[in-house]
Amino acid sequence: MQGARSILYLVLVAASVVAPFLFPEYGTQLATLWLMIIVALTWDMTGGQMGYNSLGNIFFYGTGMYVAAVVAIGLVYPVGAYTDAAGGGRFVFTSSQYFVGLALGALAAGLFCAVCAVIIGAITFGLRGPYFAIGTLGVAIAAGELVSNWEWVGGGQGIALPVYPGDLDDGKIFFYFLFCGLGLALFVFLKWLYGTRFGAALNAIRDDEEKAEGMGIHTLRYKLVAWAMAAFFVGIAGAFSAFQLIHFEPLETAYQTINLGIFMVVCVLLGGKGTLWGPVIGAIVFHVFKEVTWNYFLGWQWVALGALIVVIVVYFQEGIMGWLMRQKPEWFGVHVERTEMSSGRAATEAAE
Fold this sequence. Notes:
mainly alpha; ABC transporter involved in vitamin B12 uptake, BtuC; globular
């Protein structure tokens, strides 16, 4: 069983490596797929494993975009002069400046978002259930409005970053492997984390936080650390997106609460909350569904997505992984004894 699982992992990694070369015309869509996997996995860290459903994780994505942009620009030019719409200046970045800015900007974005998660979590984790979800959503909406009125970072017009210094097709592959590498690293990290005492503590908080506290678990500390780790990876993903998109705006792109902020939740619900593979499977299925509706049902795509959300919430709450665990428990190492059931049935038939 373990050998078959290892082979499966190797096949999936190999498929991820060759995908942009087999389907070069879909390089951007494949990179977006990895972005969906990343945000779904990070949302499930708190929403699925810990039981705190956040609607504000998009805050870390948008903040990561802006932090990375400010760092990359500030290393070379004054940020205010660069973003001044009336400046009319010409700003040139060398290849080394571009890649150094990208690397340092992504690291700064991840660390800054992790610190923000600790600060925001210290306040919002006093809320429970829908109050926590609404509170985090309010943080994301407020951040988008504040940034859109902050002229130093471009205000409502957003920020335009330098273009990838090379062939555009090579740039698509480059950003694909950035998202792919981050997604694989996150998956491996979570696979290890969920098997540790830390992962067990998160599940204890989800099942019954009061009992977890009674057992001596410092629940607030675990919640803050988990959200900080999720914010770290989302912030880096936001940084990569900023350079991939080249130009981004605060409300439509960075703090897009109605789009990506909702999509990450739907991916987890579709795949199955509280599982490692659920967010991955849900992100793949949802992304394919979204791309198909956007291409073939233009004008009705939001209706189709809304219908999918309704179906998931009303009829498919356990998700794909939950359904599979119930139908095929042996696939997950669970063996159901049926001898007693068979004996009982035989006795009933004999009595009749």
